[in-house]
Amino acid sequence: MARILLIVGGGIAAYKAAELIRLARKAGHSVTPVLTAGGAHFVTPMSLAALAESPVYTSLWDLKDEAEMGHIQLSRAADLLLVCPATADLIARMGAGIADDLATTILLATDKPVVVAPAMNVRMWLHPATQANVATLRARGVTVLDPDEGDMACGEYGPGRLPEPADILARIAQLLPGTGSGSAAEGGGGAVPGDKPAAIAVTSPLAGTHILVTAGPTHEPIDAVRVIANRSSGRQGFAIAAAAARAGARVTLIAGPVAVPTPGGVARIDVETAQQMAEAVADALPADAAILVAAVADWRVANAARSKLKKDVGPPNLEFAPNPDILRTLAQSPDRPRLLVGFAAETDDVIANAAAKRTAKGADWIVANDVSGDVMGGARNRVHLVTAAGVEDWPDQSKDDVARRLVARIAEEIQ
Ligand code: C5P
């Protein structure tokens, strides 16, 4: 059972901190609340104190508290720090190392694992400034949870909602010693050997690495308004980018035209054509691993028209030129990532074709999937991991689970 120092930031989701304290206490954890000035606009110290059965700390300048329980002691007396809800402002101040109130001072002074549960307006969450701050924190080993997606108090829809308190506690439980459930891909760790029974180690298995992911289809123009496209939704690649970010990597996601929200902590570059994708990949190097999930068009229209083709002149005579093979080019590049993973969407002889592709293209691994069903655009995937050592058949599972497992394997390989 852990001693949780709970920092409650200012935001409409602060009321959920009360429920979180209740559930944490029920699970046997102790909770010491620290309330920011913003948080105090939404919940009272009294209600948190009653639920936590603990004093609530609010000010750096309360001399009585500094004498009895200063900010260093508060951090020392905890096994884990949880920031919930974490506002965009609090995340930015953590990223910048600002220490101008009790909460940020504790966060700067601590050497304990820190879990951040963000909650904010969708635009604020998706803003590049917030995403950069989240990436900074993750690169430093802070576990930043992905916000939930849904209707927001401000009337908008998208990612930014505080995860449910029960889910937050489940994630914390994964980080606690003795549960054995800290999965590598989730950024969880196990117990630290030693004499402190409640000590917690949170390791980010991909901390310090740069992971490059391509995802989605490409669009190859025919004229000013028409394109050649394919049915790739981008979901599998986005899930891999999200899982890599959760595992602590700096992630660059190069995405073709898709309607999937950018995962937390991921730097996304949008492209349209295969040529643009090839350039963006080259610009993003060096990387420790590249996972090329995009369904890149093999051909582009060499004689694409600048303006819209008129129907009455009859069907166009399209001429095609081959697109660059990004995977093959990357395999031969002097900047070749240490681990190069390709995907192979096949409808026949899935494994044999994937194995041939692995050697022909110079990839280390190929993730082969049978796309004869509704994999493209669907939520589930059944894949085979083809490596130099052989073939692993993975069960039918969600694209998120494929992503988690693949990222865990990547972490084992490159760390
Ligand atoms: O040859 P095929 O398209 O089946 O190869 C699939 C793999 O190669 C995927 O990893 C895909 O992202 C990558 N690829 C690429 N550039 C291309 C074609 C495919 O990077 N032009």
Overview of this protein structure:
This protein is an alpha/beta fold and 415 residues long. The protein folds into 2 domains: 3-186, 3-Layer(aba) Sandwich (Rossmann fold); 210-414, 3-Layer(aba) Sandwich (Rossmann fold), CATH 3.40.50. The chain is 33% helix and 22% strand. The chain is built from 14 helices and 21 strands. It has helices at 15-26, 45-52, 63-69, 71-76, 88-96, 102-109, 122-126, 128-139, 165-175, 235-246, 274-284, 326-332, 350-361, 399-414; strands at 3-8, 30-35, 80-86, 114-118, 143-144, 148-151, 157-161, 210-215, 220-221, 227-228, 250-255, 266-270, 289-292, 299-301, 320-322, 339-346, 365-370, 380-381, 383-387, 390-393, 397-398. The strands form 6 sheets. Strands 12-11-8-13-16-17-19-20 form an 8-stranded mixed beta sheet, sandwiched between helices. The protein is elongated. The two termini are 30 Å apart.
